[in-house]
Amino acid sequence: MPSNTVTQLNYTASTRKSRFVLSRLHSLAGLLPLGIFMVEHLLSNALAIFGAERYNEHIAMLQAIPFLPLFEITLIAIPLLFHAIYGIYLSFISKPNANVYKYQRNIYFMLQRVTGIITLIFVIYHVWSFRLGPLLSGTEVSHSLVSEHLANPFIFVFYITGVISAIFHFSNGITTGLITWGITAGPASQRVARKICTGVFVILAGMAVVSLFSFL
Amino acid sequence: MTATTVDKLVQLKVRRKDSTTGESYWEEFSVPFRTNMNVISALMEIQKNPVNAKGEKVRSVAWEYNCLEEVCGACSMRINGKVRQACSTLVDRLEQPITLEPMDTFPVEKDLVVDRSRMFNALQKIKGWVPIDGTYGLGSGPLISADHQQEAYKYSTCMTCGCCLEACPNVNSGSPFIGPQAMGQVKYFNMHPTGSLQKNERLEVVIGEEGIANCGSSQNCVQVCPKGIPLTTAIAELNRDGNRYALWSWLKK
Ligand code: SF4
Ligand code: SF4
Ligand code: FES
């Protein structure tokens, strides 16, 4: 944790823009490939609500996508790793103070960091148990494999926490992303954006929780 | 002074430091209450009679002030944990003991006095001025509409008090961030028709190492600014300008 004292600014002309470019890529990676993929993934899982057969059919369809590993690596794994590593760096250089300044945005600022870390731990575990693990051992991923997994109450609670963290991180990330991209400039438009994102959170989280319960 | 307030005392707890290198320590004081007393008048009571709560005579508490009407920015300190102006903080609205701490985002000089020069350096860095006549006259500047003036006026009231930097979670020793005050001033000077002659040089700072990429949208700055400067609006607008500038200047390379 950094101490709160700053050193004098130095006068050299700022020519290093890497931090700026990385911060924009961080936002972009979170919104586009990762955000879109997460929504798609949640929708796919929601098919479990309509029964095991419908769910298994969909998995088979997804696995039939040509060059699937290529897309998984370039559109999901690389953006994810970058987003996670840069995000962890960002949490290390900030000094959350929501205990003193209890403003809603400041609390969300802290939660964005907390949910980011929870999501990362969850995603690593999740990818291992349903993608890499089965890939290495040759197990088929199906409704029954997921059900067996979620039958363990600890894992179930871990899943609920992980999924809700990821959805919070995404919805709150849209509101801050709109600021990073200079779209919602004033307080009124930022308020509207926050309301819409709260709606997105409620809908996605509700859907995800119902999907998880349908596996039991 | 009414008879009922004569006997009332104000309890103060001050985080003190004897020199830039000294250790900080807490010291308690109690001073007589007066109606409409603010934190500065309470500190003046200590100055008149520098005796701590244990009855020991001590060095008087050091702090800074000038205007006493929230326009100079000198008297910022953390009062009951939150940063604000001592001159506009009324004692009877505070929970006691009132804790007074320096804004230690800045180097602490002595007691409540801090060195705010990083903000003045930041103003030099962002070219916080409008270029006027040099070796030859530049002529009269363009007219500014009333709307434009109104918008600019808010940013012009910045008193370099440092509250926004103190409350910003991303201004600290681990982060290179120049801080929200400088961002507000970039917006201010860039929106001035003559000031905008140096627009790109200011945007270089915005997209640089110490710039806007360090902001994490916690929006504390806009909440604590005593002048109510719309800092987060400036930040969002500079995000847009900075993104465009960075992209176009790269594409033109
Ligand atoms: S919005 Fe940005 S500049 Fe303002 S307090 Fe938060 S991190 Fe700091
Ligand atoms: S922007 Fe507001 S809080 Fe920050 S230095 Fe200026 S007046 Fe103070
Ligand atoms: S003394 Fe000037 S702002 Fe408080």
From TrEMBL, chain A:
Top-level taxon of origin: Bacteria
One Pfam family from the record: Sdh_cyt
UniProt keyword list: Heme, Iron, Membrane, Metal-binding, Transmembrane, Transmembrane helix
UniProt source species: Peribacillus saganii
Compartments where located: Membrane
Residues passing through the membrane, by range: 21-39, 59-86, 107-128, 154-184, 196-215
Name the UniProt record assigns to this protein: Succinate dehydrogenase
Cellular component GO terms held in the UniProt record: membrane
GO molecular function: metal ion binding
Automatic annotation (TrEMBL), chain B:
Alphabetically ordered keywords of this record: 2Fe-2S, 3Fe-4S, 4Fe-4S, Iron, Iron-sulfur, Metal-binding, Oxidoreductase, Tricarboxylic acid cycle
PROSITE patterns: 4FE4S_FER_1 (PS00198), 4FE4S_FER_2 (PS51379)
GO molecular function: 2 iron, 2 sulfur cluster binding; 3 iron, 4 sulfur cluster binding; 4 iron, 4 sulfur cluster binding; electron transfer activity; metal ion binding; succinate dehydrogenase (quinone) activity
Gene Ontology terms describing biological process: respiratory electron transport chain; tricarboxylic acid cycle
Broad EC category: oxidoreductase
Domain 4Fe-4S ferredoxin-type as annotated: residue spans: 149-181
Listed InterPro entries: 2Fe-2S_ferredoxin-like_sf, 4Fe4S_Fe-S-bd, 4Fe4S_Fe_S_CS, Beta-grasp_dom_sf, Helical_ferredxn, SDH/FRD_Iron-Sulfur, Succ_DH/fum_Rdtase_Fe-S, Succ_DH/fum_Rdtase_N
Protein's UniProt keywords contain Metal-binding: yes
A Pfam family reported for this protein in Swiss-Prot or TrEMBL: Fer4_8
Domain of life: Bacteria
Cofactor (UniProt): [2Fe-2S] cluster; [3Fe-4S] cluster; [4Fe-4S] cluster
Entry's EC annotation: 1.3.5.1
Family: Belongs to the succinate dehydrogenase/fumarate reductase iron-sulfur protein family.
NCBIfam families, per the entry: dhsB (TIGR00384), PRK08640.1 (NF006391)
Stated name of the protein: succinate dehydrogenase
